[in-house]
Design brief:
- It contains three helices and 34 strands.
- 51% of the residues are buried.
- The chain has 555 residues and is mainly β.
- The longest helix is centred in the N-terminal third of the chain and has 27 residues.
- Helix content is 7%, strand content 47%.
- The chain folds into four domains: 88 residues, Immunoglobulins (Immunoglobulin-like, Sandwich), CATH 2.60.40.10; 127 residues, Sandwich (Jelly Rolls); 121 residues, Jelly Rolls; 129 residues, Sandwich (Jelly Rolls), CATH 2.60.120.
Length: 555
């Protein structure tokens, strides 16, 4: 048995007409069980980016005609052929592509125009059309970043030409690893500007400076933060979002009183270089934010997903010495050349790290080899708890990372890999406003044990590599874990009755016990089918919530 919901946004639907806005305005979730998601802002209408290009083009044409009329009025008996000019309206359409409208304006009769479009990457296209008629063109770049488009229009009969240029910056962002660094700790005042520690009051926010902090440059578009809630006096959740934008109805970290809970978030950065962290609970809570990397609209490291696989399991001796990791000790993990990763060139790795069977409270810290262990945390746990957390870890020059058990007591450690970043990676990140895609509490039923739910990404021809999801289980009726992998069958296969039941992967992204509410970020590969499977690997039903935060798009 399986259940699914097609994932489609206004931006993706607009792609069918050729010009699409990069950011889908969509509904976001609430972390509170039983509370429905509400729309935070309307979605842009299909074709709105194309309309913007046309409006830009029309304004340029109107000005040119007005100037020509003025010249004609100033010069009695001015002859025909007073002017010939070309105009361009360009808009970004997705991570690696741009769409433009171009047209020539002239008073030459029977003007038919050849448009030579130099995209600034060594590619030149030629298009034709009558003067005064808009010509629409899309182009896909191999690299994100800044490009100069030059259009030379030539009247094919009168042999007159005109040229126009426009600078564009593609919307896709690539990743730069950052040594794990603490940017915020309200317990001691780090990053708050306060002389002493002070928790975040109920239903208030705290700001985290990203751009210009710790070597992070200006112009950063998104940041990878490990956000930890601790010393909570009541249950609630944390919302992370870009400064200067409306607070969404989403959640990034769920917690109960007295609990210490981390979760990875990829957060858009506001124009002022800050992100906001909101405490959505009835009591104060301390918040910690550790950075491991950031995204910019320039060439850096692209993302490549891999089939989820297990690199380390200290319970069996896989990838490390067998037996729990002793307290206050560190072990190395070979990443490059393992689990589908290349042997060289990996700058950072996307992992899911699980602590299980700990004998006491503490935390794990993942960091690049060749460096001292930073004062940050990747996974927090208490005695006897099994806790998983997604992390993005910079990789050392020898292709390894280190994991330190910061507790005084031993704990077993499991490491699963889901993807990696490299200069050769072809997928760039596109953040979107958080949207709830599925909630089994509303209009459906809990996900049964050993069953799976599948989500279909409607791509309209876009080449997706992966989607950034936050998965939450609640109302759990027993213990278990989630596993995520691309489905081998396409939507067309299902319609034709040719779909085959997938095999769940030997990995986990989220662990829970009876009665818990737990969430974790997942960078889920869409595979070749564009379908993502989410498995309940427990034996009892659980409610499942699926939220989407962005996509990785290939060139």
């Amino acid at each position: 048995m399986y259940r699914h919901r097609v994932m489609i946004s206004a931006a993706v639907a607009a792609a069918a007409v050729g010009f699409v806005p990069v950011t889908a305005q969509a509904a976001g979730p609430s972390a509170d069980p039983g509370r429905a998601a509400t729309a935070t802002s309307p979605a842009p209408a299909a074709g709105s980016a194309k309309d913007a290009a046309v409006r830009d083009l029309a304004a340029q044409q109107a000005k040119a005609k007005a100037d020509a009329t003025a010249r004609s009025a100033a010069s009695a008996g001015a002859r025909q052929g007073e002017y010939f000019d070309v105009f361009m309206g360009a808009v970004n359409s997705n991570a690696h592509s741009v769409g433009l409208a171009t047209s020539a304006s002239t008073d030459l009769t029977n003007s038919f125009v050849a448009y030579d479009i130099d995209w600034g990457d060594g590619t030149i296209d030629r298009e034709y059309g009558p003067a005064g008629t808009n010509v629409y063109v899309n182009h896909r770049y191999a690299e994100v970043g800044a490009h100069k488009i030059t259009i030379t229009a030539t009247d094919t009969y009168h042999k007159v030409s005109a040229t126009t240029t426009q600078d564009i910056v593609l919307d896709g962002s690539e990743f730069t690893p950052h040594t794990p660094t603490r940017l915020l700790d309200t317990r001691d005042g780090t990053g708050t500007g306060a002389p002493a520690g002070r928790p975040v009051a109920p239903y208030t926010t705290t700001r985290v400076k990203i751009a210009g902090n710790g070597g992070i440059p200006a112009g950063v578009t998104a940041v990878a933060l490990n956000i930890t809630a601790t010393n909570a006096s009541s249950g609630g959740h944390v919302i992370a979002y870009a400064s200067g934008t409306k607070q969404p109805a989403t959640s990034n970290v769920n917690f109960v009183a007295g609990q210490t809970v981390p979760n990875l978030a990829i957060v858009p950065v506001g124009e002022d270089g800050y992100v906001e962290l909101a405490n959505r609970s009835e009591g104060p809570v301390d918040l910690i934010a550790d950075v491991t990397g950031y995204f910019t609209r320039s060439a850096a490291s692209g993302y490549t997903s891999v089939k989820p696989s297990r690199l380390v399991d200290t319970r069996t001796g896989l990838g490390a010495a067998a037996g729990p990791v002793a307290g206050r000790t560190t072990f190395g993990v070979q990443v490059a050349g393992q689990g589908g990763l290349p042997a060289a060139g990996v700058t950072a790795v996307a992992l899911n790290i699980t602590a299980t069977g700990p004998k006491g409270s503490g935390h794990l810290t993942a960091f690049p080899s060749g460096q001292q262990a930073p004062s940050t945390s990747s996974v927090n746990f208490t005695a006897g708890q099994t806790v998983a957390n997604a992390v993005i870890v910079p990789v050392g020059p020898d292709g390894k990372i280190n994991i330190r058990n910061g507790a005084w007591d031993p704990a077993d450690v499991i490491v699963d890999v889901t993807g990696y970043y490299s200069a050769d990676g072809k997928a760039a990140y596109l953040p979107m406003e958080p949207e709830r895609r599925f909630d089994s509490r509303t209009g459906t039923w809990p996900l049964a044990g050993q069953d799976y739910h599948y989500e279909t990404m409607w791509t309209s021809g876009r080449a997706l590599e992966a989607v950034v999801l936050n998965l939450t289980v609640t109302n759990t009726q027993g213990s278990g874990h989630l596993a995520v992998a691309p489905d081998p069958s396409t939507v067309a296969d299902r319609i034709a009755g040719k779909a085959v039941r997938p095999t769940p992967p030997d990995s986990s992204v989220l662990n829970w016990t009876k009665g818990a509410t737990v969430s974790n970020l997942v960078q889920a590969s869409t595979g070749t089918s564009g379908v993502v499977d989410i498995w309940n690997r427990g034996w009892e039903p659980t409610d499942l919530i699926v939220d989407i935060f962005g996509t990785y798009e290939k060139n």
